[in-house]
TrEMBL record:
Keywords: Oxidoreductase. Pfam families: Aldo_ket_red. InterPro entries: AKR (IPR020471), Aldo-Keto_reductase (IPR050791), NAD(P)_OxRdtase_dom_sf (IPR036812), NADP_OxRdtase_dom (IPR023210). Residues 15-308 form the NADP-dependent oxidoreductase domain. The keyword Oxidoreductase applies. This is Aldo/keto reductase.
Length: 333
């Protein structure tokens, strides 16, 4: 974890980073390029210094967007991207490929799109079950030695896989979905990260918008919005989960902060090794999220929140069967 935080300190970064996926991928209609460039520049000006993207997002469009927006500021921020999962241009389907030659090619292509000569952190986006994790991580380690990346990361993997990978090459960070209503990293991953000195980068710390109050009983997801296929956002599951959200929102009102800020304060409280990267297309929400940087919750409020959304209380799986098949993370019984 020291190298990860040393680089963040070099650029005077707040602990909260910016997940850039939403601008180009995953939630229906994408932001037009010029609007995306303006949003990223405003994010930098308001203080964000950790930007997270991936080859997959927008079928490489997200990396190109960051390159156009932020290349002139490159020495002033921490840049992370991901390899090993990409869109097949012919079929339009995502393909997981962890072979060393694929990871090297994707890295070089990402560097060109991002208009930089190195990445501060490069994740294996998904483990390829046809390729030993040691082979994929070894290839990323060689990219560190060549100066093309500064550190190796993994995404959506289990504690056991992390240990195997770390024995091959030091893993600086693991990215996993982590929020009050998605607490799978608490099964084993978070503790293993602490033991190994690996940062836990929490994506979707706002519960894919649910904890911010952006979704209600009448919400209809846009075409292409991944949440439409996620069980906990639909039918009776959504109705049940909204009752939990009402309790959560009441705490935010009492503390005179927004639900999004409360959600981020909870994630930050889970350990110094936890780094939240909320994503949004809204500059207003970017500013709102960054203001959670200084929030510290009391022990009684943390205890109250922990009991409010226990894993068995939340209705519905976080992924559908097809999405679940692509990940390696531990699941609650």
């Amino acid at each position: 974890m020291s190298a990860f935080y040393d680089r963040l300190k070099e650029v005077a970064s707040p602990r909260i980073g910016l997940g850039c996926m939403n601008l180009s991928h995953g939630y229906g209609q994408h932001v037009p390029e010029q609007a995306g460039i303006r949003a990223l520049n405003e994010a930098f000006e308001m203080g964000y210094r950790h930007f997270d993207t991936a080859t997959l997002y927008g079928a490489t469009a997200n990396e190109r967007l960051l390159g156009k927006a932020l290349a002139s500021k490159r020495q002033g921020f921490f840049l992370a991207s991901k390899c090993g999962m990409a869109m097949n241009p012919e079929s339009g389907k995502r393909v997981i490929d962890g072979r060393p030659e694929t990871l090297r090619r994707q890295c070089e292509e990402s560097l060109a799109r991002l208009q930089t000569d190195h990445l501060d952190l490069y994740y294996l986006h998904r483990m390829d079950r046809q390729v030993p994790i040691e082979e994929s991580v070894g290839a990323l380690g060689r990219l560190v030695e060549e100066g093309k990346i500064r550190a190796v990361g993994l995404s959506e993997i289990s504690a056991d896989t992390l240990r195997k990978a770390h024995a091959e090459y030091p893993i600086a960070a693991v990215q996993s979905e982590y929020s009050l209503w998605t607490r799978n990293p608490e099964i084993a991953l978070s503790q293993t990260c602490q033991i190994l000195g690996t940062a836990l980068v929490a994506f979707s710390p706002l519960g894919r918008g649910f904890l911010s109050g952006a979704i209600d009983a009448d919400t209809v997801f846009a075409e292409g919005d991944m949440r439409a296929g996620m069980p906990r956002f639909n039918g009776d599951n959504r109705h049940h989960n909204l009752t939990l959200l009402a309790q959560f929102t009441a705490v935010a009102i009492r503390l005179e902060i927004t639900p999004a800020q409360l959600a981020l304060a909870w994630v930050k409280a889970q350990g110094r090794h936890v780094v939240p990267i909320p994503g949004t297309r809204s500059v207003t929400h970017m500013r709102e999220n960054l203001r959670a940087e200084q929030l510290v919750l009391s022990e009684p409020d943390l205890a109250l929140l922990n009991e409010m959304m226990r894993p068995n209380d939340v209705a519905g799986a976080r992924y559908n069967e097809a999405q679940q098949a692509d990940i390696d993370t531990e699941e609650f019984a």
